[in-house]
Amino acid sequence: xxxxxxxxxxxxxxxxxxxxxxxxxxxxxxxxxxxxxxxxxxxxxxxxxxxxxxxxxxxxxxxxxxxxxxxxxxxxxxxxxxxxxxxxxxxxxxxxxxxxxxxxxxxxxxxxxxxxxxxxxxxxxxxxxxxxxxxxxxxxxxxxxxxxxxxxxxxxxxxxxxxxxxxxxxxxxxxxxxxxxxxxxxxxxxxxxxxxxxxxxxxxxxxxxxxxxxxxxxxxxxxxxxxxxxxxxxxxxxxxxxxxxxxxxxxxxxxxxxxxxxxxxxxxxxxxxxxxxxxxxxxxxxxxxxxxxxxxxxxxxxxxxxxxxxxxxxxxxxxxxxxxxxxxxxxxxxxxxxxxxxxxxxxxxxxxxxxxxxxxxxxxxxxxxx
Length: 370
Ligand code: OSB
Ligand code: MG
What we know:
The protein is α/β, with parallel strands linked by helices. It has helices spanning 62-77, 85-92, 99-117, 121-125, 144-157, 172-182, 201-205, 224-233, 247-256, 266-269, 272-284, 298-307, 355-361; strands at residues 5-23, 26-40, 43-49, 131-132, 136-138, 161-165, 187-191, 215-216, 238-240, 261-264, 289-291, 341-342, 362-369. It has a seven-stranded parallel sheet. A four-stranded antiparallel sheet has the order 3-2-1-13. Strands 4-12 form a two-stranded antiparallel ribbon.
């Protein structure tokens, strides 16, 4: 199936978070997202750009993605008569970087194409699982008692794996408290979002006694060698997030011994097709992967569930139920059922955007006609 893009609608949506989310990068109380609707001869498709409000997690942010899509990406797709989703990345390859912007457009074209042929995204990607086991990512809190209360709430909700955000001076003590309070059986991991430096290896080694599943992205995103050195020093496995921006960078990181687990976020690597390629590289190396999250709306969450249905996703991902993020979303909510979330089975992303809710949360709209 191929399409001709006739128009693209860009929307800035702001969804209030049910709980403030603090990481070593900053604090979010609202998820501002860029929603992309591609309209063409075969119908329409939806995409979501995972860039945040500011360039703290990566260089991209909502405004940069908006401008990049309008000025540089759409002009390369707009005139193509028989556009296929698999051609989007090659057509955009002359534009350097801007992977989150590219991923959002590719997602929308994929959705349009798969809706037109009636195929679910998970089937297209090669996923077999009908449901995935969710984990939950827990922000930095003001106090340890508050952290214990938040974690207990999530365990009561049915989450089977907990990821604590850490930073220097909020690492050993919260991890020890959670371990002591909830016991050794809790699947526990930490994420530093690049908050440490090579000279902090001794501090990070103190986490070894807590039996963590992994420590995610302790060092700078460009510091693959530092991660490799750290991996030799620590007993806790290292997982990379920010450093993995393509299948090639994943292969390099594995060859260097910089990590033994990979967090895959489709936006970070330029789309769901590249995300599948990262999965394939890791699986070929016997390295387990899991699906990361970027506080997505129901659009991105649906696509992440489809990706996480692939066989190499052996570890629970940061794909939580909608209620962990928002009291109202722009699609029907995803819910936990027996500790799992169902992979959407409908065509494309398998979710319908609730237009009235989308409109209510939209602060800015631009329609670009081709
Ligand atoms: O590092 O995994 C991260 C959210 C925004 C930016 C970076 C990260 C995160 C999360 C949230 O950890 C995961 C989720 O969506 O539940
Ligand atoms: Mg991370």
